[in-house]
UniProtKB/TrEMBL annotation, chain A:
PANTHER family: DIPEPTIDE TRANSPORT ATP-BINDING PROTEIN DPPD, OLIGOPEPTIDE TRANSPORT ATP-BINDING PROTEIN APPD
Pfam families: ABC_tran, oligo_HPY
One GO-annotated biological process of the protein: peptide transport
InterPro entries on file: AAA+_ATPase (IPR003593), ABC_Ni/Peptide_Import (IPR050388), ABC_transporter-like_ATP-bd (IPR003439), ABC_transporter-like_CS (IPR017871), Oligopep_ABC_C (IPR013563), P-loop_NTPase (IPR027417)
Name used for this protein in its record: Peptide/nickel transport system ATP-binding protein/peptide/nickel transport system ATP-binding protein
Keywords, ordered alphabetically: ATP-binding, Cell membrane, Membrane, Nucleotide-binding, Transport
Every ABC transporter domain range: 45-296
GO cellular component terms listed in the entry, alphabetical order: plasma membrane
Source organism, top-level taxon: Bacteria
Compartments where located: Cell membrane
Membrane-related topology note: Peripheral membrane protein
Signal peptide: none
UniProtKB/TrEMBL annotation, chain B:
Major location (coarse): membrane
Keywords: Cell membrane, Membrane, Transmembrane, Transmembrane helix, Transport
Gene3D superfamilies: MetI-like
Source species taxonomy: Bacteria, Bacillati, Actinomycetota, Actinomycetes, Micromonosporales
Name the UniProt record assigns to this protein: Peptide/nickel transport system permease protein
Protein species of origin: Asanoa ishikariensis
Amino acid sequence: MTAEQIPGAAAASVPGAASAPGAAAASVPGAAPAAAQRVGEAPLLRIDGLSVDFHTDDGVVHAVTDVSLEVVAGEIVAIVGESGSGKTVTAMSVLRLLPKAAEVSADAIAFRGTDLRTLSGSELRKVRGGPVGMIFQDPMTALNPVMTIGAQVAEAVVLHQARSDKKAAWQRAVELLRLVGVPDPAERVKQYPHEFSGGMRQRAMIAMAIANDPDLIIADEPTTALDVTIQAQVLALLKKAQAETGAATILITHDLGIVAELADRVVVMYAGRVVETAGVGELFATPRHPYTKGLLASLPRMDVDVDQLDPIPGNPPNMADPPAGCAFHPRCPLARDKCLTDRPPLLAIGAGRTSACHFSEELA
Amino acid sequence: MGAFLVRRLSINVLVFFLITIAIFALVHKTPGDPIAMQIPADQLNSGSAEFIAQKRAELGLDGSLLTQYWHWLTNALHGDLGYSLLNGRPVTEVLGERVGPTVELMGVGLLVSVLIAFPLGILAARRRNSWLDYGATVVSLGSVSVPVFFVALIVIYVFTLKFQWFPSSGISDPTNPSLLNTLHHLVLPALILGFGNSGPFMRYVRSSMITELSADYVRTANAKGAPPRRVVLRHAFRNSLIPVLTVIASNLPQLLAGAVVIEQVFAWPGMGQLAVSSVNQHDYSVIVGFALLIAILVLMSNLLADVLYTVVDPRVRLR
């Protein structure tokens, strides 16, 4: 399903491009098309200058460095990158779900104007699972094996009830499971996770995430652990859940097919930094960073007859000892001397587009 | 779950029969005439040669080894374990009156060890590498490495001799054998038994909790907005119990071994005391009965572990 979508998406109109040129001048990468469209409206989520370090035996690992992004109400922002690019760490830092060993610093992580870093434990818990719902990668391990599905979904409801009403929460759990397409929910709600298939478990996860009508859903590789046939169903469900709740969504994925199908806007990450942001149409039509270009070239296409796919040579960098200069230079076909020493800053390259490449003009 | 239990139960029955063969071999190899273990001593001494021969035939002692085993086993299963060589009383009766006090001591001792180990293990896991964690490690190491009798002597010195808070011997005051009085007598031996067993339990709880606290479903619970207490107790702790319960159940024989020593120190009239005195006085029939009882205890502990498994882990029910 993924491959056919890409050409179509590439041909799609570019959302929000060329509007409000003033916004594009900002060096903040999040000042992107959708945000620009709604001038004056505060973004739903604003991450500014986020860095996350882990202290390991191999030294300090800069998992995320100086990442900024904005999400406005109702839009779907995809964060794309290889394993270890920092996309999951970025998303987890929003609700402060990183392990204690993580050293998080940022200028702001603001949700609806409130900096989540300043919230007390109980204030933060009102946001978690309430206005911000999360969907995790592996539904096999993300559900508690010794609690029934119903108890886990109902828990998400009860925790955000003004007055604890377990019976109502249980009924709501049944209703939520029906909503996400679990057949015979009144019975299946009594079952344990091991009695659910992978796809059904992910549906239950989605039910938990949307239990309290969130404004923002953070989905961390929601289909990666699933069979390809199930992936399509879960994606369709995510789309439906997003449409019904009107929640903005941060979609973390390495699958550009999913991006093409769902996202409005794309943030590409490499080695812990944002390397390119663009509307989904622009990104697929004219990638302005060689890494993005490489990602697209490595995809199979249905519309062009190719004998061979072009994978990006080499491997993602060791984050304990990343390359000097541009972190992508060892794998980059455009790399020149400058790239070995000077790290390219993330610069606005057009309306709502940014790129961190010295030679982004050459790609235009 | 029913099929699961039937399977476990039948395995245990099979093992039990294997054990009875081993114990029978022990009976067979004990010095002296086996008839002496199977009829009361006074009958043995006063009875005529014909009487003895008749009894021998009745008990199957003149038959083959197999018939002898069969007779011994059926008698044992009917609760007839022969007679004490020492005082001629039925072994079942002698053992029977000792089971209660030992079960009491072990039960309360187990409760104490769990009450020490669970909270300490959970706290140590939550605050890994903190002073609390190191302190708990030192305490647990101490609980296993300091001999029980030594702790017992110190405790008796402090709480019985110095402060005179608790009695140091017996199960109750003969003049006032109330429940409260028994509990009063139980405090020191149960605390020491419980403390001695808490160390390994605490280590298991700690390591199991550390594993569970880093599990994905804990992150899910956090992401739902569950408060830390709920995340730890409702989510992580219940999962951490799965391995811990097995350890505790399979540790019950160990607990009995500890009880034997403590019963000696505190003159607690339980099975342990009986076993020690029987060994000292070569009362083989009681020793055999004791061996059988321990075999049953170990098998029951394992069965209990299996049953608890199915209670805490829904995934086991399908197997």
